[in-house]
Write a structure and sequence with these properties.
Helices cover 21% and strands 35% of the residues. The longest helix has 33 residues, at 2-34. Strand 6 and strand 7 form a beta hairpin. The protein has a domain at 64-295. Strands 1, 2, 3, 5, 8, 10, 12, 14, 15, 17, 18 and 19 form a twelve-stranded mixed sheet that branches. A five-stranded mixed sheet has the order 4-9-13-6-7, with no helix packed on it. A two-stranded antiparallel sheet has the order 11-16. The relative contact order is 0.17. The protein is α+β, with helices and mostly antiparallel strands. It is globular. Keywords: Signal. Residues 1-26 form the signal peptide. InterPro entries: TUNICAMYCIN_INDUCED_1.
């Protein structure tokens, strides 16, 4: 009976020692996988071997995060498009009220928090949602709809879009027109008009990603009834009040304010450099703009580097004994994307070494100078040559 009890205790002790070790190894493995891009950037910057470094410490409770919007543009004239990227800006940093203990679950939670700020768009325009998501609609008089992939909005109707993770537009540039051009384009040369009988101008195309919610109302009278038409199970149409038919229309600017300002700036810059050449060649241009929601995180991580290869200690003067590992702290600013951490900035944290100091009087307290013989030296020897 005693032997059986002893065996049970021994098995329990072995399980207690094994399972925590497995959880630690799993934690390190998952954290290393999430931080793979960060480790690659650090190893490339410091010329380390990627297989020699691993994450040794990361305090998830001290992670700070903030929301940001990244603007991406593709400007093209002819066959050579140029990409322009505006960096992420974080207005304020936040922390979780309840500290998180697992970095993997923290990153997963932050990935689902990235959404674009609510923006307004005034018709006419066409809005599509990509991927597996559908649009939810809210109209005046407590009217709601859901399950749509495409919405056609007429003139005089404003739509507020919230909950989207990405929005993109395609804007045809007018730099190819002559300086005296009016910007009017004939009806026979116009863009594609999705609904000929309902709209009097081509619809500006807007594409969103994510489970977006739309709130529609008339621009001049928000409480007025909006006439709708169901084109299919996934397409709904908001009809305008009036239609002014004309043989020409004026090209519309981008209806999203934040994108319109940046597109205008890019067109001015492009026009100042290549405007004459573009007009002479008659090439048509375009600007494709995107807004992507992202979550930016800031944290500190300690990496452990193993000295397994020859030459790993070069530049490490002062070593008296050959170390087995080296531990270095880094401060990381990164963007969370699809459960991974994409580094924006990585900075090594230098250790602050405090030197112990001892008063000179305490060192010389037991020495009597009266018993020492006098020594005469030249005055030049007492001169302090201090170079600042």
């Amino acid at each position: 009976m005693a032997m059986r009890r002893t065996g049970t205790l021994l098995v329990s002790l072995i399980l207690f020692l094994i399972f925590p070790l497995q959880s630690i190894l799993a934690f390190n493995s998952s954290t290393t996988q999430i931080l793979q891009d960060v480790l690659k950037k650090i190893s490339a910057k410091h010329k380390w071997y990627l297989q020699d470094i691993r994450v040794s410490r990361l305090d998830a409770s001290r992670v700070r995060f903030g929301s940001a919007q990244r603007y991406e543009f593709r400007v093209g004239f002819g066959k050579t498009p140029v990409g322009v990227l505006f960096s992420d800006d974080v207005a304020s940093w936040k922390k979780f009220r309840q500290p998180r203990t697992h970095f993997g679950s923290l990153v997963k939670e932050l990935s689902s928090m990235a959404v674009i700020d609510t923006f307004k768009v005034e018709g006419p325009f066409e809005l599509r949602v990509g991927g597996i998501h559908h649009l939810s609609l809210s109209l005046p008089m407590n009217t709601t709809y859901s399950g749509f992939k495409r919405v056609l909005v007429g003139k005089g109707i404003t739509v507020e879009v919230s909950g989207a993770t990405e929005v993109s537009v395609f804007h045809a540039s007018d730099l190819g027109l002559s300086s005296k051009g009016s910007g009017a384009i004939g009806k026979e040369k116009s863009e594609f008009w999705p609904i000929w009988h309902s709209y009097c101008a081509p619809l500006f195309p807007i594409r969103v990603l994510g489970p977006a919610t739309l709130v529609a109302y008339k621009t001049r009278n928000p409480d007025a009834y909006i006439e709708t038409k169901f084109m299919s199970k996934e397409i709904i149409e908001f009809l305008p009040e009036k239609c002014y038919r004309s043989h020409a229309y004026k090209k519309r600017a981008c209806p999203i304010d934040s994108l319109r300002l940046r597109i205008s700036m890019l067109e001015r810059i492009w026009k100042s450099f290549l405007g004459d050449r573009i007009r002479q060649s008659g090439l048509s241009g375009f600007v494709e703009g995107k807004i992507k929601a992202s979550t930016v995180v800031r944290f500190k991580v300690e990496l452990e580097r193993e000295f397994r290869r020859n030459g790993a200690l070069q530049g490490k003067a002062g070593w008296r004994t050959r170390p087995a590992v080296e531990r270095v702290w880094f401060e990381v600013l990164a963007r969370v994307e699809f459960g991974r951490v994409k580094p924006l900035m990585v900075k090594e944290i230098r250790p602050f070494i405090v030197a112990d100091s001892v008063a000179w009087s305490s060192l010389m307290s037991n020495i009597s100078f009266t018993k020492s013989s006098s020594v005469l030296v030249p005055s030049e020897a007492l001169t302090l040559d201090v170079k600042w």
